[in-house]
Specification:
Layout (H helix, E strand, L loop, with lengths): L1 H25 L3 E3 L3 E4 L2 E4 H4 L5 E6 L6 H17 L4 E6 L3 H11 L4 E4 L4 H6 L10 E8 L2 E9 L8 H8 L30
Amino acid sequence: MSSERIIELEQNVGELIAELNTLRKNNLGTPVPNYSFATLTGEATLLELFGEKDKLLAIHNMGQGCRYCTLWADGFNGLLHHLETAMSVVLLSKDSPEVQRRFANARGWRFRTASHGGGAYIREQSVYTGDDNFPGAVVYERDGDGILRKNSCVFGPGDLYCSMWSLLGLAGLDDEDWTPQYTYWQRPSELDDGGANVLD
């Protein structure tokens, strides 16, 4: 009986997602200011982050100090080539441009990055009302010389935006059973090279 219920719920979830996406498609959006960000090449406005596209996916990342945000970005990085055929993509965090690039390079991320520095942008555009450093994403749309905030989402364990949770769920696991790490390497009890100068 439980297998049948699982199939029924999966179908229900699929129908709800289709309804959600229809509502998002028809959402008119709300105007937002043309915020400024710090990048490695100088100041950039929100409109400039669109590049040649009319839509911009702004990933709200809490910064290098968050293992969960790192997990989400690791996953999006694999989709980046596909995403950029539909819209521009930028990863935003409070970290300085130098820290962002160093961490992105260490992870192999190919995202364009920009820093809001904890300023007006993230206070006013947070994906979670009342929290000015919450992970999620916002899609903006160019409207002539203006910008519309079309849709947003919050990231968190079990959401639709990180496939890790669905795959863990297939195994009967959730965020109480598993926590993302920056690396999963464990030092062997014996090192064949003698073990001198190993950095964890």
